[in-house]
Fold this protein.
Amino acid sequence: MHNSVKHQETIDYFLKIVWQTVANRYNQLVTEFGITQSIGYLLINIDEKDGTTVSQAAALLGLKSTSLSRMLSQLEKTGLIYRESNQGDKRSVKIYLTELGKEKRHQARVVVKQFNNYLDSHISETEKEHLTEMLKKINKLTLNYKP
């Protein structure tokens, strides 16, 4: 890294800090429902009708299937999800929400919606579009980066 650039001024530093701040705030908001930000995110993204495969869930959360299985065992113990063999492919397992899981998913959705409404009320449509375009561009550049 070039010496004149302080780590606090790099794009990746800001991306990391902003995401940590958002995730921490979400964790504070959902703790009263007995879940975490990552559990809420998982619950929101489990397909209500068809379930979600473990590999799809791992990809969503950016986790390896092994790291995810600990979380899934915990969610199964607390009665938020259940697992069944995938009818189409016996080797894979699908995750489904229990009634309690659906309730927690609803609570997480409300938190996400309220937070995003708050952000929307303080960020103009133009700013939001610009930020989204920049983030997509950074993502693409990162994927294409070859030192």
